[in-house]
UniProtKB/TrEMBL annotation, chain A:
<keyword id="KW-0479">Metal-binding</keyword>
<keyword id="KW-0444">Lipid biosynthesis</keyword>
<comment type="function">
    <text>Component of the acetyl coenzyme A carboxylase (ACC) complex. Biotin carboxylase (BC) catalyzes the carboxylation of biotin on its carrier protein (BCCP) and then the CO(2) group is transferred by the transcarboxylase to acetyl-CoA to form malonyl-CoA.</text>
</comment>
<keyword id="KW-0862">Zinc</keyword>
<dbReference type="GO" id="GO:0005524">
    <property type="term" value="F:ATP binding"/>
</dbReference>
<keyword id="KW-0067">ATP-binding</keyword>
<dbReference type="GO" id="GO:0008270">
    <property type="term" value="F:zinc ion binding"/>
</dbReference>
<dbReference type="GO" id="GO:0009317">
    <property type="term" value="C:acetyl-CoA carboxylase complex"/>
</dbReference>
<feature type="binding site">
    <location>
        <position position="37"/>
    </location>
    <ligand>
        <name>Zn(2+)</name>
    </ligand>
</feature>
Automatic annotation (TrEMBL), chain B:
<keyword id="KW-0443">Lipid metabolism</keyword>
<dbReference type="GO" id="GO:0009317">
    <property type="term" value="C:acetyl-CoA carboxylase complex"/>
</dbReference>
<dbReference type="Pfam" id="PF03255">
    <property type="entry name" value="ACCA"/>
</dbReference>
<dbReference type="GO" id="GO:0006633">
    <property type="term" value="P:fatty acid biosynthetic process"/>
</dbReference>
<keyword id="KW-0276">Fatty acid metabolism</keyword>
<keyword id="KW-0275">Fatty acid biosynthesis</keyword>
<comment type="pathway">
    <text>Lipid metabolism; malonyl-CoA biosynthesis; malonyl-CoA from acetyl-CoA: step 1/1.</text>
</comment>
<dbReference type="InterPro" id="IPR011763">
    <property type="entry name" value="COA_CT_C"/>
</dbReference>
<keyword id="KW-0547">Nucleotide-binding</keyword>
Amino acid sequence: MSFSEQLGEHVKRFSSRSVSMLKHYQAKVPNGIWMVCPHCGASFYFKRAGQYKVCPECGYGFRVTAHRRLRMLTHHFDEWDAGLETADPTEFPDYERKIKKAQSTTHLKDGVLTGKAQIGSQTAALGIMDPLFIMGSLGTANGERITRLFEKATSQHLAVILLTASGGARMQEGIYSLMQMAKISQAVNDHSDAGLAFISVIMDPTTGGVTASFASQADITLAEPKALLGFTGKRVIEQTINKQLPADFQSVENGYKRGFIDEIVSREALPGRLEQLLGILTAKKWGGD
Amino acid sequence: MSDTESIIAGARSDRKANMADIIDRLFSDFFEMHGDQVAGDDPAIIAGLAKLGGHPVALVATQKGNTLEERMATHFGSPEPTGYRKALRVMETAEKLNFPIITLINTPGAYPGADAEASGQGQMIAQNIRQMLKLKVPILTLIVGEAGSGGALALACSDEIWMFENSMYSILSPEGFASIMWKDAHLADKAADLMRLTPEWLLEQHAIHRIIPEDMLADGSLQTAMTTTLERLSQQSVEQRLTRRAAFFRKF
């Protein structure tokens, strides 16, 4: 084989098709050497995502487990209700296997981590939904855990910070999933009536029944850059109106323009921002002794 | 036809498409209110004041419509954010006037359009759920046909939730469910069986309070049942009602 033939082979091997295949496999392995940003498509050496796991090009925050997301916020955390698990209320086929798999991926019994956290010098009730637990979908177990987060926060006079990430209702739990929306909303109301603050942080993706309940019921709504926030899935909307929508139709940047979000905050800046807000909320009130 | 299939067919029957007819049969002196006083008037929500058994009530109902034209305008009974806002403002008026509220539901879900999404469909449903749970007056819901997803729940955070024997209440339409689970809306029949959307199952789970045989609409006994129930609910204290309403959802 001559040199030019060898070069030809080399070029062929790196043809656009094989590059796209390579990207395809990289996208499936977020902990590989190379990462591909699902938002802007940039590919980069994994270390450039840094400890906060964000795209160095566009600032998108990669989907990470709730445990990992917690470590980006605080190292002082007392977990609540860790043992809550679904009882499979509609006896849905193959559901148990799915749950087991999600449990081993996330090290959670269901799709949320809750507890009492110290953020800087401040204390709050903290919940973090896990997008890797059956798409962070809302079922009886994580719904109960979020309800108890608000109930415990109410009795302990704590503000609630809830980081949301969810594909919406847990299809395998049917009406039980729908009822979580009302159950949690009631706990949000009771917490609110006690004069306590609720801060929600929209992570990627926050959709469906979670958007249509507690994610949209906070006093202050923050969001991670480039996260998706919506109610109906984009594909369903496109089929309904028979038109393509822009890629960023449901971005939090657009949500900010529409008035759904107070501020978009990077992962790195979030602990400081939350500490500042909690400081205002717990400051000594006017007219007290 | 399986039981589930016949329930779905009954739930989607054209006889139930025109909620205005059902309102006429149940109530007198209906005065329809229009608009959300902010952004528009959604024809998929009919709301207003009326009398039931001589007493005042506020009504909020979803509307599909009879003709194709009506159904296009109401998106086959799928409300937009302005519809939910209209519903909420009428319910808040009812609270101020101390009128009980009756909601009548026949919707596949909130409208999945681009404008609806951009003008806060999810955000508006979230507000309706919150506010309904707080309303001090009695609320009675009757699911007449379909009741799908958060779009139905936004009108069903009530003291009493009744279903017609041929009606369905579910997390999503069977078509939507099949599309999410198997990426194929044509598997809706298979989905419907798994979804457990029938009144019998929902009553067993205490997700509803009562199943209403449909001839109760024709023979007038539904009016009597509603009157009796609202009378009973009205005799409870506000605190009793709100505690019971919260406990109903808390058990899930």
